[in-house]
Amino acid sequence: MPLSVRHMLICAGLGLSLAGVAYPGQAEARRSAEKTAHSVAKLSLRSTAAIVQDAETGEILYDKNASAVAPIASITKLMTAMVVLDAGLDLNEVITISDDDMDALRGTHSRLKPGASLSRDELLRLALMSSENRAAAALGRTYPGGIEMFMRAMNHKAQMLGMSETHFDDATGLSNGNVASAEDLVKMVRAAHRYGIIRNYTTATGHEVQVAGRQLAYHNTNRLVANDSWNIALSKTGFTNAAGRCLVLQAELAGRQVIIVLLDSLGKLTRIADANRIRAWLEANARPQSGGAHKAAREDSRLAPG
User: Fold this and answer.
1) What domain range includes position 291?
2) Residue-wise pLDDT tens digits, 47-98
3) Is 206:215 a contact under the CB 8 Å cutoff?
4) Is 131 considered catalytic here?
5) How confident is the model at residue 105 (pLDDT cuts 50, 70, 90)?
6) Does residue 74 carry a catalytic annotation?
7) How many domains does the chain divide into?
8) In whole angstroms, what is the distance from residue 113 CA to residue 76 CA?
9) Choice among 77, 157, 187, 236 that is catalytic
10) Catalytic-labelled residue, pool 74, 130, 265, 301
């Protein structure tokens, strides 16, 4: 073999060898990207619809049936609270529970009997923290112009927030006509988080009120707020047979503010289990990148059991 040809072959072989070892960081980056995509694809939720969004950047980190419109039960009460607060009504005004506040749709139980009197502030607290239906109904009934004007204000607020697939029929969420998509509810959670009262009341673990000479203890319907390992800034649960068990929250997870929406979770404990799955997934994939990782999450969500 001529010397020049042998020299060229030796140089080419050396170049190929160096290409494989000269940039170990690139190989490591490829392995890391493959590992991240594999880890992202592991997230599988039991809720029928779900969305996880970075509250600061707006990046959608995970979604599953996020555009599907469904009943939202007591998640409604976040909108109820915003409309009351937007109106600037006197929170110290005493409101008396009436027969009109009783649940004629489902006959749900309440310890607030007709004739019981509480301030608007206390009713707001009970509606948000413990999902008290008569408290929410009384808030709507005593809105200027009555419940009809309250419904108009709720639906108008939804439109202003860009919640195009949302409609409200009552202040409690007991009506199956209260519907939204997970995509819309992310917008509602983001808006509700701007209200200090809503943040405080939805994350309180419990509260006592005095009604007709009796002390009544109420507790938060989301047990995660009492878990010290969670840093929750806003929370609301919901349940009806049609809506299933629902949960929305905003929390700091893996160093980022995240909004989570879970709709129609199967079983009593599934919405909590799904929230914990999301937390573990975020912590295992801290600051997941957009693009390929998000695409993997979307593809996995379509295959996840509903």
Assistant:
1) 46-303
2) 999 999 999 999 999 999 999 999 999 999 999 999 999 999 999 999 999 9
3) no
4) yes
5) confident
6) yes
7) 1
8) 22
9) 77
10) 74
